[in-house]
Write a structure and sequence with these properties.
This protein is mostly helical and 289 residues long. The chain is built from 12 helices and no strands. Its main location: membrane.
Length: 289
C-alpha cells in the first residue's frame, strides 16, 4: 500500500502551476474586460486542478502498465515503482477526472454557456488519451501541442469567457504566454527522459527532435512569454512587470542550454513552473492596475 506521501508525490505537485497559472492569467484578462467573477474564477481553478491531478494519475497508470516508467530518472511513479496497484491508481485518475467533469458542469450551468460542455468533454478525453488507449497521442509526438492547447488556449480563454462572455487580444496574448510556459515544462521533462523513452518505444516530440533540437525548443518557448509582456505593454506599461520573473529561469536556461542531462534537469521543471505562475500573477496585477 502506498503511503499518503507517495500518493501526494504521485499526483505530481510540481505540475500544479500548470493548472493554476492559466486561471490566474484568465482572471487578469477578465478584469481588463470588466467581467471578473469570484465564484466562476474559483470554480475554474478547481476544475483545472482536478483535471491536472487526473491527468497525472492517468499517465502514471498508463505508463506504468506499459513498463515505460521502469527505468525513469525523475520523481516517484506509483505503478512503475510498485508502490501502488494499477487498479488503485486508475481509480484515483477516474475520481479526479470525474470531479473535474462535475465541477465543470456546475460552472457551465452558472454561466449558461452550455456549448462549453463539448470543450470540457474534449479536455477530459484529451487527459485520458495522452498516454491511455491503444495509440496514445503522447507516444507519437503530440503531447506538446496538447499541453499548449489545453493548459494554454483552453485554460486561459475558457476562464475569460465564462466570466466576461467575450474574448480579447489581451486574453489571446496571455493564453499564448501561459501555453508556451506550460509546454516548456513538458519539453524539459521529455528532454530529461529521451534515453529512457527511446528504450521504451515512446516517440515523444523530444525523441523526434533529438537532444539539440529539444533544447532549442525549450529556449524558444520560455522566451515567448516575455515577448508577450512587451506587446501587452501597449495595453498597459505595467505589463512589463512580467519580466521580473525572468531571473527564475536563469538556472534552467543555463542547464538546458549548457547540455545538462538526467537528474540535473529536474530543477528546470520546477523553476519553469514557478516562472509561469509568477508571470501570470504579475500580469494579472498589471491588467488590474
Amino acid at each position: 500500500m502506498a503511503t499518503a506521501g507517495e500518493w501526494i508525490e504521485g499526483a505530481r505537485p510540481r505540475t500544479l502551476p500548470n493548472a493554476v497559472a492559466p486561471v490566474v492569467a484568465g482572471v487578469g484578462a477578465a478584469v481588463a474586460l470588466d467581467g471578473f467573477s469570484w465564484p466562476r474564477s474559483v470554480l475554474a481553478l478547481l476544475v483545472s486542478l482536478a483535471l491536472i491531478v487526473g491527468v497525472n494519475y492517468a499517465n502514471d497508470y498508463s505508463d506504468g502498465i506499459r513498463g515505460t516508467d521502469e527505468n525513469r530518472v525523475g520523481p516517484l511513479r506509483l505503478v512503475g515503482s510498485g508502490a501502488a496497484k494499477p487498479k488503485a491508481v486508475l481509480a484515483a485518475a477516474l475520481v479526479a477526472l470525474g470531479l473535474a467533469g462535475i465541477l465543470g458542469l456546475v460552472l457551465v450551468a452558472i454561466s449558461g454557456l452550455w456549448w462549453l460542455l463539448a470543450m470540457g468533454a474534449v479536455c477530459i478525453l484529451g487527459a485520458w488519451f495522452y498516454t491511455g488507449g491503444k495509440k496514445p497521442y503522447g507516444y507519437y509526438g503530440f503531447g506538446e501541442i496538447a499541453v499548449f492547447v489545453f493548459f494554454g488556449l483552453a485554460g486561459v480563454l475558457g476562464t475569460v469567457y465564462v466570466q466576461a462572455g467575450q474574448l480579447s487580444w489581451t486574453a489571446f496574448g496571455c493564453a499564448v504566454a501561459v501555453g508556451s510556459f506550460s509546454t516548456g515544462v513538458l519539453t524539459a521533462n521529455n528532454l530529461r527522459d529521451i534515453p529512457t523513452d527511446i528504450e521504451a518505444g515512446k516517440r515523444t516530440l523530444a525523441t523526434r527532435l533529438g537532444d539539440k533540437g529539444t533544447r532549442l525548443l525549450y529556449l524558444v518557448l520560455v522566451a515567448v512569454p516575455y515577448v508577450v509582456s512587451v506587446l501587452l505593454a501597449f495595453v498597459t506599461p505595467w505589463a512589463l512587470l512580467g519580466w521580473a520573473t525572468a531571473p527564475l529561469l536563469l538556472k534552467s536556461v543555463k542547464a538546458v542550454g549548457g547540455g545538462e542531462q538526467g537528474r540535473a534537469l529536474i530543477p528546470a521543471l520546477r523553476d519553469t513552473g514557478f516562472a509561469m505562475l509568477g508571470w501570470a500573477i504579475l500580469t494579472t496585477v498589471a491588467l488590474a492596475l
